[in-house]
Amino acid sequence: MGTINRQIIVNKFTTPEKGVSVREQDYKDPKPNELIIRTGYCPINPADLNVIEGKYGKLPELPAVIGNEGSGQVIAVGNECEHFKEGDHILFVNRQDCWQEFVAATPDQIIKLPDLLPLKLSSMLKVNPATAWLLLNQDIKIESHDWVVQNASNSGVGVAVIQLAKSLGIKTMNFVRRETCKDKLLSLGADAVFTDDESGKIEATKLIKNEKIKLPLAINAVGGESALRIMSLLSEGGTHITYGAMSKRPLKIPNSFLIFKNLSIRGLWLSHWLKNENKANIEEVYQDLAQKMLDGKLEQPIDSIHRLEELEDAIKRSTQEGRNGKVLLKFKS
Description:
Largest sheet: 7 strands, mixed
Distance between the termini: 18 Å
Number of domains: 2
Number of strands: 16
CATH topology of the largest domain: Quinone Oxidoreductase, Chain A, domain 1
CATH superfamily of the largest domain: Medium-chain alcohol dehydrogenases, catalytic domain
Order of helices and strands: EHEEHEEEEEHHEHEHEHEHEHEHHEHE
Strand content: 15-25%
Number of helices: 12
Radius of gyration: 21 Å
Helix content: 25-40%
């Protein structure tokens, strides 16, 4: 292609602020089985920060281009790639190196999306909305009048759970650290919002008792005491699913929860689903989520957008508390 590809790389595992830099590489035309995608936007996810720190479940060999989520447009098509053309809107689904201006991808690593969906919205489609969909579509019997309880409810996954649950007729009980988050979550369709502390737990317990609420599912992204708080609210035979560990504190489960309440404890990692699920089923889920975004039924808030020249500021902002959504890296000029 005779152009420069700017890439964000990790040379050594260290703090997020010190662990990334930008390098320039030449890019060639696609191989017959490849497409070249010009990246539009990529969010900075907690998983990306964990990779930079060397604390994620799967780590690359260094130096490495990182970034597990993003979207863009096809600018060149290899002659063996059918059903794609220049200008197609693309979501990266099986790439861990999205933080670069140009990505050479094979058809099995991407999904085509509706052209009308803005790139900055589609860039946030892979991880949080799909994780929320998976959490609500486990083999757990949840009736339309039942509730689910979650912590980190103002996170990307949390707000997606609220909106997707509402579309299924399921009510949500939500815990947050900051009182200021409550009104926003209620406007998205949350049915009850409490502070993630003992006073919030007491309020939630009263609501459960007074309304005779059945809680078959608890969704944990925090760990530690917060995870136990929502676990304690589960109905007998309920399921507690962990998909994140924001507090970096272990989950110590009381024996009584296992013996007398017969709770099931499990984990969920989107990467397992993307690796093992049939590609047609994966595409169907993402097409449905994309349509919900287009219809205004699935909001993913954006805090700020940064160009590559502002990489240090973007990383710093992504580690700060009190954000109002995702921090996006802008690659497309």
